């Protein structure tokens, strides 16, 4: 049984590796060589951290279209103050139209950034202050980003209010 599991696991690893590589031969007699087919965007934690600042600055414009421009197509938004997942640009625009009415501004309190080839994750805690109402909301967030060849875009954005009150 253990040997079967090990063989299955090894087979899965081999198949997973094939998803990101091509085999090419340099001549009819040369052995196959593994060649990486994508090029990875070189980035830094500082650059990924600045993507929240870009998103937050778009909130401050009050224009939902400027906020939505930060999201890839396709992408998913699981917002703080709505039970409905937002999948399309129109659904995100509708959400931000209402969210922006209270003039929100966010501040990162804690974050962890992970970077991979053309993707990144920024997850942590943030605080939103709403200028119109004076409300302050502490929340958890996760942004996943993908490099589209010219800029970083949000592919997943999850935000939720902190479950415990201070």
Distance between the termini: 51 Å
Q: Using only CA atoms, what is the Rg?
A: 21 Å
CATH class of the largest domain: Alpha Beta
* Low-pLDDT regions: 1-27
In CATH, the topology of the largest domain is named Nuclear Transport Factor 2, Chain: A
Biggest sheet architecture: 5 strands, mixed
Number of helices: 4
Give the spatial strand order of the biggest sheet: 3-7-6-5-4
Do you know the CATH architecture of the largest domain?
Answer: Roll
Number of strands: 7
On the 0 to 100 scale, the average pLDDT is 85
Oligomer: single chain
The helix/strand series, from N terminus to C terminus, equals HEEHHEHEEEE
The fraction of residues assigned to DSSP E strands is 35-45%
Description:
- The chain is α+β, with helices and mostly antiparallel strands.
- It has 2 domains: 2-36, no CATH class; 45-161, Nuclear Transport Factor 2, Chain: A.
- 30% of the residues lie in helices and 38% in strands.
- The chain has 4 helices and 7 strands; from the N terminus they run αββααβαββββ.
- The chain has helices at residues 2-18, 45-60, 64-68, 89-99; strands at residues 21-24, 33-36, 71-78, 104-116, 119-130, 136-147, 152-161.
- A 5-stranded mixed sheet has the order 3-7-6-5-4, with helices on one face. A two-stranded antiparallel sheet has the order 1-2.
- Strand 1 (21-24) and strand 2 (33-36) form a beta hairpin.
- The longest helix has 17 residues, at 2-18.
- The radius of gyration is 21 Å and the shape is globular.
